[in-house]
Design goal:
Layout: H1 4-16, E1 20-24, E2 33-36, H2 37-53, E3 61-65, H3 70-81, E4 85-89, H4 95-105, E5 109-112, H5 115-124, E6 133-136, E7 149-151, H6 152-160, H7 164-175, E8 182-187, E9 197-201, H8 202-215, E10 224-227, H9 234-246, E11 249-252, H10 259-266, H11 275-290
Parallel strand pairs: 1-11, 3-4, 3-5, 5-6, 6-7, 10-11
Antiparallel strand pairs: 1-2, 8-9
């Protein structure tokens, strides 16, 4: 059986073309920016070609340290296309936590979101010998670091100019993908000692996608959802993948403080959640009633 996460971008682009896959905002006051399947595939292809050009090998690890934004999803799926392994780091992680996860996973490329996360990366990079490159999602001004830093836009341009040999290699990797390939490594909170890396193969995601489609018969590609939990959380990571697997459009909420505004504007028909979210809603309603 082929890996769903490895092939989903190509198969769904062939099916949906210029139909929306997700939308996002860059600020609370900004306009929604819509990304189609065609655009998504072009970006995933470019980043995946750039990864191969930079000598990322099959089952090598990359680390992603950012709050929710489209670049996380693009980078993850570019890694799947290479049969590489994305390792998520919570955007609120401390320097010591970031350093530990990078070194324990031996990640070769570190993707960071904003200037705050880049500052942490700067502080720990000298103690992370496995990291060969930092890629910044934002266009952050930085020192050269001996060529160890690229912006996401530069990474896209590198992939768009990839050689035919690189493109052929990506095609070969995808054809040789197996269910036993590692899809991702999840790090625990570390409440019982140092965080442990839980290894999830692609077979886990294959099973999750199929059983959810079988059981959630009320859902279809006419439904919509909101990505508001951190994409570094496996629940949101898997749910957003399921949305793509089903062809459901979804909105990426850039800040958890603005989820209510996102819900009002986008009006999703379904979404995943955790008890803590409903506890906060309940508390908020009671506070307003008390006033």
């Amino acid at each position: 059986m082929s890996n769903i996460l490895t092939n989903i971008v190509s198969s769904q682009t062939a099916k949906y073309g210029d139909r929306e896959v997700f939308r996002h905002k860059e600020s609370a006051e900004g306009e929604w920016i819509i990304t189609s399947w065609t655009q998504f595939k072009e970006q995933v292809d470019a980043i995946s070609y750039a990864m191969e050009t930079l000598n990322l090998n099959v089952q090598d690890n990359i680390a992603v340290f950012s709050s929710n934004r489209p670049e996380i999803i693009i980078s993850n799926y570019a890694a799947y296309a290479n049969r590489a392994v994305p390792v998520s780091i919570y955007s609120t992680s401390s320097k010591s936590q970031v350093k530990y996860i990078i070194n324990d996973s031996k990640s070769r490329i570190l993707f960071v979101g904003n200037a705050e996360q880049f500052k942490i990366a700067q502080a720990v990079i000298a103690e992370c010998p496995s990291v060969e490159l930092i890629v910044t999602f934002d266009n952050i001004e930085h020192d050269d670091y001996n060529g160890k830093v690229l912006t996401f836009e530069q990474m896209l341009n590198l992939g768009r100019n990839a050689s035919e040999e690189c493109r052929d290699e990506l095609s070969r990797r995808q054809k040789e993908a197996t269910e036993e390939d590692i899809a991702t490594i999840l790090y625990t909170s570390g409440t019982t000692g140092e965080p442990k890396g839980a290894v999830l193969p692609h077979s886990c995601f294959n099973a999750v996608m199929e059983i959810h489609k079988e059981r959630l018969t009320m859902l279809s590609d006419e439904d919509t959802s909101v990505c508001f939990l951190p994409l570094s959380h496996i629940f949101e990571n898997a749910w957003s993948s399921f949305c793509m697997y089903m062809g459901m459009r979804f909105a990426i909420n850039y800040d958890t403080k603005n989820v209510q505004q996102t819900l009002k504007e986008f009006r999703p028909t379904c979404m995943c959640s955790v008890p803590r979210f409903w506890e906060k809603v309940y508390t908020g309603i009671n506070e307003k009633l008390a006033e």
